[in-house]
Amino acid sequence: LRYMDDSGDNTLNSDEFCHKLREILEEEAAKPVTVLAAFCSHLRSTGKTPQMLFEELDDDHSGCLDASEFHAALEQVGVHVTESVARAAMAGLDVDGDKTLQISELVEHLDEFRRQRRVFAATVLGNICDYVRKTNASIVRMFAQVDNDGSGNIDVFEMQEALRRMGQDLSELEVEELMVELSSEGGSTETTASQFLDKLKQFERERTADSEKCERLFSKYDDDGSGFLEREEVRQLAEGMGLGEQLRDENSSLTLDRIIGDIEGACENEDGEEGDNDEEEAGNSRDGPTKQDAC
Questions:
Q1: What is the tens place of the pLDDT at every residue in 235-249?
Q2: CA distance 41 to 64
Q3: Per residue in 23-63, pLDDT tens?
Q4: Distance (Å, rounded) from C-alpha 138 to C-alpha 116?
Q5: What is the dihedral of CA 149, 152, 156, 157, to 10 degrees?
Q6: Residue percentage of the chain with pLDDT more than 90
Q7: Which end of the chain is more exposed for a tag (fewer CB within 10 A), N or C?
Q8: Do residues 36 and 42 lie in contact, with contact meaning Cβ atoms separated by under 8 Å?
Q9: How far apart are CA 51 and CA 31, in angstroms?
Q10: CA-CA distance, 98 to 71, in Å (whole number)?
């Protein structure tokens, strides 16, 4: 109430409520993740490539989108905001700070968004697999409980409730992007219990295979047998996994620092406080490898 009570009279009228709600919605709409999700959804539904969409939006054929063109772009992909909010949203995507959006910037952000969505989906599926293993929960029974209309198809809101019951408290946007990533039908945001179970089984098989492969690769490139991969050893591992060309490409967003950061981030998420203690100890050690130099 205090947050929304602009007048300070300990009451909330309709104008104050609408004003604060508009502020919250505009703040969410200006976030890069919201904008990129809308662009991805539009590209899926229309079958267009980012280049095709960009050419349509670039009215003056300058090769970049200015603030007004970007505002029109947001309207086209379903994000209805004011010009000031559109400018704020564009600033979050404007890598070089020239107050315009180039096609290379848009494509780079879309690629990174899709990569993060794949990582996010894998993380959620891993958590669900662990939950089912520990609790012996029935996905079929749980889906039946949240299937409010009895259609057999689970929509975004029903999936959100099912995930909440399995300890995954996700926003509507996160659930929608998860379902799109898992969909085998062109980005559908509906699924059935059998389809979801198939995805879980596939994920578990791939996770087991990946784990075994990672152990083999780690042993192969851990030249000194220290149990850590030094920076150069990580580079060799990336080369062995076929990522060498991307690492050598100056225009590629994939860097050695990013690979190390992603691995360390995943480890910290899994280890929790224990990982934080390890980081502190590694940072205080002069002889041992630091978190920047090893993973």
A1: 888 888 788 888 888
A2: 21
A3: 777 777 778 888 898 898 888 888 899 999 899 889 888 98
A4: 28
A5: 30
A6: 18
A7: N
A8: no
A9: 22
A10: 16
Which residue has tokens 């494509």?
A: 107
Amino acid letter, 59: D
- Name the E strands within the chain: 64-65, 101-102
> What is the full DSSP assignment across 89-143?
HHHTT-TT-SSSEEHHHHHHHHHHHHHHHHHHHHHHHHHHHHHHHHH---HHHHH
Position 8 scores a pLDDT of 64
Instruction: Identify the three-state secondary structure at position 154.
Output: strand
Per residue in 90-140, pLDDT (tens digit) is 988 888 889 999 999 989 899 988 888 888 888 899 999 999 989 999 999
> H or E segment at 85?
helix 83-91
**Which tokens is 54 given?**
């960009």
d(CA 235, CA 241): 10
Owner of token pair 């949203």: 89
DSSP letter for each residue of 233-258: HHHHHHHHTT-HHHHH-TT-S--HHH
Both tokens assigned to 135? 């609790």
Please tell me the distance from the alpha carbon of residue 197 to that of residue 124, in angstroms, as a whole number. Answer: 14
Q: How far apart are CA 166 and CA 119, in angstroms?
A: 19
Residue corresponding to tokens 């009895």? 150
Q: How far is CA 268 from CA 77, 180, 224, 280, in A?
A: 36, 27, 24, 12
Q: Select from 105, 148, 125 the least CA-distant residue to 199.
A: 125
Assign 3-class secondary structure to 59-75.
CCCCCEECHHHHHHHHH
